[in-house]
Specification:
The protein has 475 residues and is mainly beta. The chain has four domains: 73 residues, no CATH class; 104 residues, Sandwich (Immunoglobulin-like), CATH 2.60.40; 141 residues, Immunoglobulin-like; 137 residues, Immunoglobulins (Immunoglobulin-like, Sandwich). The chain contains one helix and 35 strands. Strands 16, 18, 21, 22, 24, 25 and 26 form a seven-stranded mixed sheet that branches. The N and C termini lie far apart (110 Å).
Length: 475
């Protein structure tokens, strides 16, 4: 059996019929690649297939056969070109042999260039011609990275299809999708160090807390494996605020070291971690993230800021310095200052023109704490009046009396707001605040005799709270 390609206009004349295959099996299939013939890549006259419409004919040795039910169309090939590698992220060392790969069709030759990519402008600039007219069908070439190419991380491969070696043909072209790096063969084994995105954000850390997650630092090896033998952990803070620091490779403890510093000395944090056999091993083209964790000293000073990071280190063949710090943490005491409103309580009713107790109590308040704001609000935050003169000194735990104005608005959504401050009046800082539960204010005569009972209940409630606080202080 033979397979023929028959032009539609020659079905009966037999002119320009091509034999695609002879002596094929009586039953089966046949795969045929359509020749891509050009002036620079000619085919023999028997295999040059003009574009047009054709029937596929299968005939036996006696020339009895059958045509395809409908013709097929053969059209000119569309040129295509794709750079496969390097395609971004690779690292090549000068002097090394590297393979450049591509897929191409529609032209006979390719030009291959090394370009430098400029990220701000998005443009690429010629650096070196690598190939001046290799066969496009080769799909790859080997190149020894020239020693005169400067180290850098913004290189791309540019490939252009052409019909003439050495001449840009504007047929089809493509770049590496992203930049890759070239490093010097004599470059020392130094890791790339950066703050990992998973590093904890700034937050409060409590005096006496252990194994506090402070900083995540990423160490990356470029074109060769790196063994780190020494790391120095430094910090923005005071050595007496930290008792121990630990280095972790993920969840695995590498080393834990004591932090030396006398109380109140203000000595800077500087701790050495080392292992001559290798503290941390990083394979080539990979990275590891180190966690720095700290024990906050029982004698740490509340209010101090603390940040930890890597300041320097050593590998098997070189030394490096860096300054990669985590976010600053604020040391706070284990018992935080607070204040609460004891009266009025939920469901209390005040009557215009009568006097009532307002009580509050502070806990864990420093010696210079004081209440400077006692205000009456209505609804979702409508300020009505300063019950005490704004930012005047009042004890952190106290009871005062307030007479409701005869002209007071009424309703069931009033609240008392109390603010606890510390420091001198005029340069104070807010350390806690509290709101009472909602209560009611009614017009004069609105609660009759119950107003005095409510006042008595408020007074008893305030006295009970004060007695409880005194009992706690005595214990």
């Amino acid at each position: 059996m033979s397979i023929l390609l028959v032009p539609v206009n020659s079905v009966y004349s037999g002119i320009d019929v091509r034999t695609l295959a002879a002596d094929v099996a009586n039953t089966g299939s046949y795969s045929w690649t359509i020749p891509n013939c050009t002036a620079d890549n000619p085919c023999s006259s028997n295999f040059e297939i003009p574009t047009g419409s054709y029937y596929i004919r299968v005939v036996d040795p006696s020339n009895v056969g059958d045509d395809s039910t409908a013709p097929v169309s053969i059209v000119a090939a569309t040129p295509s070109l794709t750079v496969l590698s390097p395609n971004g992220g690779e690292t090549w060392q000068t002097g090394s042999m590297q393979t450049i790969r591509w897929n191409a069709s529609g032209f006979p030759y390719v030009l291959v260039d090394l370009d430098r990519y400029d990220a701000p402008s998005g443009l690429s600039y010629f650096v070196k011609r690598i190939a001046n007219g290799n066969a496009a069908s080769d799909q790859q070439l080997s190149w020894q990275v020239s020693s005169d190419i400067p180290a850098g991380s913004s290189y791309k491969i540019f490939i252009s299809g052409t019909n003439t070696p050495g001449v840009y043909g504007n047929t089809k072209e493509d770049y590496s999708d992203a930049p890759f790096s070239i490093v010097s063969a004599t470059q020392p084994s130094i890791p790339v160090i950066s703050l990992d995105p998973s590093t904890p954000s700034s937050q409060n850390v409590t005096v006496g807390s252990a194994n506090v997650d402070m900083t995540h630092i990423k160490f990356s090896a470029v074109d060769r494996p790196i063994t780190i033998t020494e790391l120095w952990v430094g910090g923005n803070g005071f050595a007496n605020d930290v008792s121990y620091i630990g280095l972790y490779d993920g969840g695995t403890l590498l080393q834990r070291q004591v932090v030396y510093g006398s109380s109140g000395s203000g000595q800077a944090i500087m701790v050495r971690f080392y292992d001559n056999n290798g503290l941390l091993a990083i394979p080539a083209y990979s990275s590891k993230t180190i966690y720095i964790k700290a024990d906050i000293s029982q004698n740490a000073q509340a209010g101090h800021s603390l940040a930890l990071g890597i300041t320097s280190g050593r590998t098997a063949d070189s030394q490096f310095t860096t300054s990669v710090m985590g976010n600053a943490m604020t040391i706070v005491s284990s018992a935080q200052p607070s204040v609460s409103v004891l009266s009025p309580t939920s469901g209390t009713t005040w009557e215009a023109g009568k006097t009532y107790n307002i009580s509050w109590m502070a806990a864990n308040a420093p010696g210079d704490a004081w209440v400077g704001v006692v205000r009456l609000y209505k609804g979702g935050g409508q300020f009505l009046i300063d019950i005490v003169p704004s930012f005047s000194w009042n004890p952190p735990t106290a009871t005062i009396q307030y007479t409701v104005s005869n002209n007071s608005v009424t309703g069931n959504d009033f609240r008392i707001h109390v603010v606890l401050n510390k420091g001198p009046v005029g340069s104070e800082s807010n350390i806690a605040e509290a709101w009472s539960a909602p209560f009611s204010i009614v017009a004069a005569g609105g609660v009759g005799q119950s107003a005095s009972l409510t006042q008595l209940a408020n007074t008893l409630e305030s006295m009970k709270a004060l007695l409880e606080e005194l009992s706690r202080l005595v214990r």
